[in-house]
Amino acid sequence: MYDRNWAKTDAEKLPVIKTELPGPNSIEIHSRASKNMKGYSSQVKLFPVAFESGNGCTLTDVDGNVFIDFSSGIYVTGLGHCHPKISEEIAKYARQLMNCHDFNTETKMKLLEKLASITMGDLNGIQLYDSGTTAVEAGLRCARAATGKFEFVSFWRDFHGKTMGAASCAIVNQSQGMRAPGFFLAPRPNCYRCPFKMKHPECNCYCADFLEQVIINETSGQLAAVVLEPIQGWGGSIIPPDDFMPRLKNLCDKYNMLLFTDEVLTCMGRTGKMFCMEHWDITPDITTLGKGFGNGFPVTAMCVSDKYKESVENISASSSYGGNPMACAAALASIEVIEEENLCEKSAHLGDVFIERMNKMKEEHAIIGDVRGKGCLLAMELVKDRNTKEPFEEAGKLVYQKAFSKGLTWVPAGHILRISPPIIMEDDMALKGLDIIEEAVSEVEKELGYAL
């Protein structure tokens, strides 16, 4: 049995800054690596630090600087860096059996049984993969096989992956290229920036009405599924109004479409529930899991309801790395840790701590237009003017960089700053990290002339 206090750290002693950031060793490593590595994320481009180790809710760079982690490796290490139980299970199979294609192993059997026991409803048809994109592509193929139809409708600024089908569900900028035939996009509910300039609840969730018009007027009636993130991740932690999901499910039933929820980002306690759709008590026909599913080890899953699970047999579902013993061990241990440590409840509590403090920050800072979140999936949106809500891209970049330079790792998305701490984080460390963000916001407001 592992020591449950393994990640306890005195928040008052954090962060630990020994050099100017990024430090000299980080600069050298990034300079050498970037001669060959291309296509870095905006996180790295804005702050090219090189990390050496992680423990719990902290990261240490190659210069010995210790950071508070508000990123979780972009929603991945929800149970903290190098959780002892998970690390030990991965190491066991790294020594014992690393891969045997899709043949069964005892740890794979146990993972499948555990996953079937905790998923919503009857999502008992499971296939395992090594990336979220691959799982989503499999889900699209399964929806087509199950329904005999070929079209999909998804939502503005959702993100599902970077291969053809997944990207066609999720065009977020023109650089991704054109969508494949048979894919349609509809406006997604965003009550802070309503695409129809309405106010909730007076709008009566008009996004659902408009979605029906997309179905009627843009598709050929051959819709296999509606695909969506329950809470939008890349787009800025956008939470739909509570009436949207039930209306979406009714539309799926009305037009005989499957409901396909992409929970690669939102599963495993991230939003305060094991699965985000539990917030609305709605079971999808297909769902995909990833990121926190293996707490950093590349393992993902596609889960299909009993009614359609035989369709998985018709899509060439297996993969080279999916379900390998190390991956299964990591995923099984992650689920067990969440259950043993009551981490869904902890995530929900931590989210309340964040939102309370972030709302206070919003009251005191002119450039903070909105704060939002469920559990440990949170965001802060920066604006030039609260009335016009004009996005403040420059401020977003500067606040991100300043907070990072003070010892906080987190996730930028233009004018939206995303916060995704490990769900094991203690309240005092969360508040310390928010102190750093507030310092950065104050400095940027002063520099740009927006201080209240």
Short description:
The protein has about 450 residues and is an alpha/beta fold.
Provide an overview of this structure.
The strands form 3 sheets. A 7-stranded mixed β-sheet has the order 4-10-9-8-7-5-6, sandwiched between helices. A 4-stranded mixed β-sheet has the order 1-2-3-13. Strands 11-12-15-14 form a 4-stranded antiparallel β-sheet, with helices on one face. By secondary structure, the protein is an alpha/beta fold. Helix 4 (84-96) packs antiparallel against helix 10 (325-340). The longest helix has 22 residues, at 343-364. It has 3 domains: 1-69, no CATH class; 84-340, 3-Layer(aba) Sandwich (Aspartate Aminotransferase, domain 2), CATH 3.40.640.10; 344-425 and 441-452, Aspartate Aminotransferase, domain 1. 36% of the residues lie in helices and 15% in strands.
